[in-house]
Amino acid sequence: MDIEDIAVPEFVEVDADERLGKVRSLFDRENPKGIVVMDDGEYAGVLGERELINSRVDDDTRAAALMKAAPEVDRREDVREVARVLVEGGVRIAPVYEGEKLYGIVTVDALLEAVLDNLDALRVEDIYTADVVTVTEDAQVGQAINRLRENGISRLPVVDDDGRLGGILTTHDIVDFVVRDDERQGRGDRSGDIDRMLDLPVYDMMSSPVLTVTADESVRDAVETMLDNDVSGLVVTPEERDDLVAGVLTKTDVLRALTFTEEDAMDVQITNVALLDTLTREDVRESIGKVSDKYQEMRVLHAHVRFHEHKEKLRGTPLIQAQIRLRTTHGQVAGSGEGYGAEHAFHVALDKLERNVLEVKGVTADERYRGQLLRKLGEL
After folding, report:
1. For residue range 325-345, what is the model confidence (pLDDT) as tens digits?
2. 366 in helix, strand or coil?
3. How far apart are CA 182 and CA 187, in angstroms?
4. Which CATH number characterizes residue 42's domain?
5. Domain boundary among 255, 275, 302
6. Do 230 and 224 touch, CB atoms closer than 8 A?
7. Please, are residues 67 and 90 in contact by the beta-carbon 8 Å criterion?
């Protein structure tokens, strides 16, 4: 299936130097699915609805300040490749071209709606993230924000002291709280100023009740729930206990599943691919494949590599955090690390991943293995 019939022409085209105040008024007036930003007549990036509406950036700021880079896709591109583009770009929309002409845009929701019938064969247990990060109700919002940032995620199930699910906190909830009218008060008559917001308990800001799904339900039903309720993720609960957290299922998880083919021994997704410097996608795939190949009983179904750039630099090279997460026939395993430049960070994370794989397999590294590993790291 290609995206010719999925792409829509309901978008607004603005210049990178356009004031956000005018862009917002255009958005309110024309109600487009998204905004395509142009710079001197050339495509520059995209602006989504949430980024535009929820931003506290001043109206005089230029559109370029909020836009995200999303690769161009061809009108007749395959759905699997478009799903890969959206995941790796960390965007909800992408521009669709027919030759050199801008044809329209494709959105995550439109793509998922188009493939709903194909999702009946998938169960939630096939694709959800079981290694879930949670936060307690009495934790401070500032702590929750740090946890979101450190793990590169957008939602945190909120639990009480007994681990029972009470709500969910998302980046959207936080942004919505910050931008709401100053006259609106939070629980306990707290105003929404940022300084005090960081000290609020998560309980004050979380959304409740939580939309949930069980692992044995079809992905189609789960996606329909997300689309009907305009949410990007669901908490996965055990069938017998709807107040416990077993994992999280997001639209991004579903997009990743769309990219998987039996021909690919291992499907690799890279978030923030633009940060790759001396690494290539094939380098990443081969390196993870070498770790996987050492343990033949474990087959990797999906690999997700995420890069995040810190402000710190060393002789012009930014400090990068790399996270590698594998979904395998033996469960989920991950590794993370930091280094100056994507290649350094990736190999630090890869080393951690390999050690975690050994733990999953119940293998203890002997002195010979340690020597091999040290020589391997010395060659990188």
Report:
1. 887 766 678 889 999 999 999
2. coil
3. 14
4. 3.10.580.10
5. 255
6. no
7. no
What's 152's DSSP letter? T
How far are the Cα atoms of 351, 367, 379, 380 from residue 374, in angstroms, in the given order? Answer: 10, 10, 9, 10
| pLDDT for res 319 | 93
- Preceding peptide of 318 cis, ω within 30°: no
Last residue of a domain, one of 229, 255, 281: 255
Residue given tokens 């959206």 in the structure block: 86
- What is the C-alpha to C-alpha distance for residues 67 and 45, in angstroms, rounded to an integer? 6
For residue 155, give the nearest of 174, 142, 168, 138 by alpha carbon.
168
On the 0-12 / 13-18 / 19+ scale of CB atoms within 10 A, 195 is exposed
Residues paired with residue 327 on neighbouring β-strands, in sequence order = 302, 332
Angle between helices 219-229 and 251-259 (to 10 degrees): 140
**Residue 248 and residue 236: Cα distance in Å, rounded?**
5
Q: What length does the chain have?
A: 380
Rounded Cα distance, 349 and 44, in Å: 32
Q: CB within 8 A of 126, min separation 6: which ones?
A: 219, 257
Most confident of 94-108, 174-188, 290-304: 94-108
Residues 154 and 207 grouped into a single domain: yes
> Which has the closest alpha carbon to 134: 154, 159, 151?
159
119 in any annotated domain? no
pLDDT in tens, 167-178: 999 887 887 776
Domain range enclosing 142? 124-255
| CA nearest to 325, candidates 128, 73, 72 | 128
